[in-house]
Specification:
This protein is mainly α. It has one domain. Helix content is about 80%, strand content about 0%. It contains 13 helices and no strands. It is globular, with a radius of gyration of 20 Å. The two termini are about 35 Å apart.
């Protein structure tokens, strides 16, 4: 798959994840947070493994892959989802949104320092523009930041663990199919989250019987499409274009989450949100390396024309 096709797929995933924010809001308003999160991830893991079984891609992890698989489970599923859910319940939407916007830049820094991925000046500019776009979009809706709280620390820990997980997935995908790793991580992580849910929400699973048919349709979309298919494709993209380049697309999450909230929850979209989108698009264009590829190809074409004219 060419990079341009991967970029289109990633934008599609970001749209799904943005809409999924509204879906999750609906679910957590109906059920206990950790309980429905654990169940959603468990169902997603089963769906991923069923798809891979039909593709004949399922195999047991090798001995040397278990450590990376465990690390990915803890960082990508358990720590990320736990700290995010708990943190957002203790901080403002503006603070949470801005801290989450640091995710791509944090991933880039870790990719350069740990995986030795190349981060050029143009790509760094892209990460800065993307972060500015997220900031503009969030502040346009909320108006102001709140005081720093323990919730802010938890949200930061959630994106730090997610950024670390991208590096683990990149390394593990050298020997294991990233889609298969996704299935195993979701399955193992869901069991850990279920234990946490039982401890924190003893009656949580009993409330599941109160869900309406429409609520369970929302659950199916969130678990099967956004979580299962979305994570399969995203983790595969990390292997193909690198953790830093894939993470820059996460900046689209904020805008698409606003679109989803406007479509499904009746929240307002402001003109300023679209200014934030322009900055995000510019950030992704630079940060993903698309601009560099365009400039390089343009230079090669110019050199070819000059060579043809000289002969």
């Amino acid at each position: 798959m060419k990079n341009n096709q991967i970029y289109v797929v990633l934008i599609g995933i970001m749209f799904l994840w943005g809409v999924n924010v509204s879906a999750i809001k609906v679910l957590v308003n109906q059920f206990d947070v950790m309980t429905i999160t654990a169940l959603r991830i468990f169902v997603a893991s089963i769906f991923v493994l069923i798809i891979l079984a039909f593709m004949k891609k399922v195999r047991l992890p090798r001995k040397e892959e278990w450590i990376l698989l465990l690390g990915g489970t803890l960082t990508n599923v358990v720590f990320h989802h736990y700290f995010l859910a708990d943190g957002l319940s203790k901080t403002s939407a503006a603070n949470g949104g801005l801290i989450l916007g640091l995710g791509p830049l944090l991933t880039a820094v870790l990719s350069v320092t740990i995986l030795k991925e190349k981060l050029t000046g143009l790509r760094f500019l892209g990460f800065m523009l993307g972060g500015a776009g997220v900031s503009f979009t969030v502040l346009a809706g909320s108006g102001k930041l709140g005081d720093v709280s323990i919730g802010d620390v938890e949200v930061f820990l959630s994106i730090l663990s997610q950024a670390l997980s991208f590096l683990i997935i990149k390394k593990a995908s050298q020997t294991m199919d990233a889609r298969l790793m996704t299935g195993y991580m979701l399955l193992m992580g869901s069991f850990v989250l279920m234990v946490i849910a039982v401890v924190k929400e003893p009656t949580g699973f009993m409330t599941l019987r109160d869900g309406s048919t429409s609520i369970w349709f929302v659950f199916v979309f969130s678990a099967l499409i956004a979580t299962a298919v979305g994570h399969m494709l995203y983790n595969s993209s990390i292997k193909k274009i690198g953790a830093a380049s894939a993470s820059i697309f996460l900046n689209f999450n904020t805008f698409f989450a606003l679109v989803g909230a406007g479509l499904f929850l009746g929240e307002k979209l402001l003109p300023a949100h679209f200014i934030g989108l322009v900055l995000i698009v510019m950030g992704v264009s630079f940060g993903s390396g698309a601009i560099e590829v365009y400039l390089r190809n343009r230079k090669l074409m110019q050199l070819e024309r000059e060579s043809d004219s000289s002969t």
